[in-house]
Specification:
The chain has 276 residues and is mostly helical. Helix content is 79%, strand content 0%. It has two domains: 1-119, Serine Threonine Protein Phosphatase 5, Tetratricopeptide repeat (Alpha Horseshoe), CATH 1.25.40; 170-276, Serine Threonine Protein Phosphatase 5, Tetratricopeptide repeat (Alpha Horseshoe), CATH 1.25.40.
């Protein structure tokens, strides 16, 4: 073997040895960091995790550990600059981890929690809308996105995503039940909503709740909300039971009668459900 070739072999061997040594040291640091994390010494754990990443950048799991460590340091709802930095770093770490394991539902949940706790709903919405472009049938993320829109006061967007979830799960009674519930809440909790908008919401919610009971005829809560929807229909005629227009009395009373029947049905179905 020529001296030049022998030198190349020695250099290659030394490089491999150094790489192997670095990977071993990285794993040792991860162990130490895990012990520090368990002892709630989060700042020291973060320093160790970051050192391990510098020695072995292939340890993608470390981003999760870093995110959880920053999450442990963060005080939910705090506006202190240090807590803002902890939130920023936790979100950054979770998002980095999700580049390698985008389907990890637990970490998606941590990310949502950090967005909500730090009042960054718009960032969460943007992230999950982008995620759903790549995973258009992930109903768990659709549910979270709809919730975020609802929390942001964007009812139509929330309703749109709840409907998309129902279209992906056409035989899931709960998916339709949720649509009915949010429509009722919008009508009931916002009495100043325009009458034509109320009619639209009641119709949408009513249809969804009926679909839920068709899929699951024993769905007590769906019948209960159908009862509430009939009561909202009656309110469209008159908010005052003593001032119902004469030509609307029969219709008004029929809505209340139907509401009572559905309420009784819901009560009976609940009695039949197993305790616990």
């Amino acid at each position: 073997m020529r001296r030049k070739d022998f030198s190349v072999l020695i250099i290659s061997f030394l490089v491999l040895t150094l790489v192997s040594c670095g990977k071993f040291q990285a794993r040792m640091e991860v162990r130490e960091a895990n012990d520090l994390y368990s002892a709630r010494k989060y700042e020291q754990a973060i320093a160790k995790y970051k050192d391990a990443l510098q020695k072995d950048s292939s340890l993608n799991e470390i981003y999760l550990n870093i995110g959880l460590s920053y999450m442990g340091l963060y005080v939910p709802g705090s506006t202190h600059p240090k807590d803002k930095e902890y939130a920023d770093q936790a979100i950054k770490a979770f998002r980095e981890y999700l580049k390698y394991k985008p389907d990890d539902q637990n970490v998606n949940g941590y990310l949502v929690q950090m967005y909500l706790n730090s009042d960054r709903k718009e960032d969460a919405i943007a992230y999950f809308e982008d995620y759903l472009k790549k995973h258009p049938t992930d109903v768990a993320i659709m549910q979270k996105l709809a919730f975020l829109y609802a929390q942001s006061g964007k009812f139509d967007e929330a309703l749109n995503w709840y409907r998309k979830r129902a279209s992906v799960e056409p035989n899931n009674a709960e998916a339709y039940y949720i649509i009915g519930v949010i429509c009722w809440e919008k009508v009931y909790k916002f009495p100043d909503t325009a009458p034509d908008e109320k009619e639209r919401l009641i119709s949408t919610g009513f249809d969804a709740l009926q679909k839920a009971t068709q899929i699951n005829p024993s769905y007590a809560d769906a019948y209960l909300y159908l009862n509430l929807m009939y009561r909202e229909k009656a309110k469209l005629i008159s908010l005052d039971p003593t001032a119902v227009p004469e030509d609307k009395v029969d219709e008004y009373n029929s809505y209340l009668q139907k509401a009572k029947e559905l309420q009784d049905k819901a009560v009976e179905l609940r009695k039949k459900q197993p305790a616990g």
